[in-house]
Specification:
mainly alpha; Arc Repressor Mutant, subunit A; three-stranded antiparallel β-sheet; 3 strands; globular; disordered N terminus
Length: 179
Amino acid sequence: MPHPPASPPLRPVPASVPQEARALVVPFDRTNLMQHPAITATEAYALEAQIGYLLRRAHQRHVSLFTQIFGVDGLTPMQYAALVKISELTEISQNLLGRLVAMDPATSQGVVKRLIEQGLVTRQNDPNDRRRALLSLTPAGQVMIDAHIPLGRVASAETLAPLSAEERAQLLGLLSKIT
């Protein structure tokens, strides 16, 4: 079996990127991929036992609960995450917001556009860098997020409800470790 092509060299993450956003960049060197211990595993492959499958199922459960709790006409999980982070930081560039809430640029652009259209967020040019747009909450956006934070807590609690308190802490700790 031929070796896959080597990954292109990774660009260093600028020092200005906060540590929590740096974690989203997961370098993987494909050079020795065929020597990885998982390549030679002999047990049967069960999709239902794979991390990606289980994470997707857990995510589906959470989004279903989130939508029920917030209502079908309420905020989406990505809109909620954006509002929470903007509220937390008061003012933030759209680029950094996307990185901090794990949105690709196209998704971030659409989410921000809808929040602006709903009158929840404002976008202004950065006076120090005309290339950057700064986002902040409108008064209506602050009222919205203040009212929805308790619902976000309920969505998280209900997602984790099948677990004991110890299991919840363990799961969150382990997920934090791999993200």
